[in-house]
Design brief:
This protein has 5 helices and no strands. It is mainly α and 120 residues long. It has one domain. The longest helix has 24 residues. It is elongated.
Length: 120
């Protein structure tokens, strides 16, 4: 029997995801300002950071943010490579978990039950 899990978890899990979104957004934003990203990467990094903090298209923003961090890593001489990879992994984990209940995604897409054929 298939188990169903909420797409937008509430309670402590939702708060934890909101905190993770805020931390990842701050990592992206501060990294773009303080780590010396190339100029062409600053605006996308800040926009992705805002999207993560607000929980707007979180999975896409997180995937792009992690990719941007990995692509920028060779150019960022002020931050150790291992720190950048850990940041990319942290941001990438949001692509797996989603936005949580306290996000714009939850408001836009809402909570819904999906019934498969043959389920009661």
């Amino acid at each position: 029997m298939a188990r169903s899990f909420p797409i937008f978890p509430v309670g402590a899990t939702g708060v934890g995801i909101a905190l993770a979104r805020a931390a990842c957004g701050l990592l992206l934003a501060l990294g773009s300002v303080s780590a010396g990203r190339p100029d062409w990467m600053e605006l996308p990094a800040v926009l992705l950071a805002i999207a993560l903090v607000l929980g707007m298209l979180t999975r896409i923003a997180a995937l792009l943010g992690a990719l941007l961090t990995v692509v920028a890593a060779p150019n960022l001489h002020q931050a150790p490579l291992v720190v950048l990879l850990l940041c990319a992994m942290n941001i990438g984990s949001l692509a797996c978990t989603g936005a949580g209940a306290y996000s714009i995604d939850a408001l836009l897409f809402g909570r819904s039950n999906i019934r498969l054929p043959g389920q009661g």
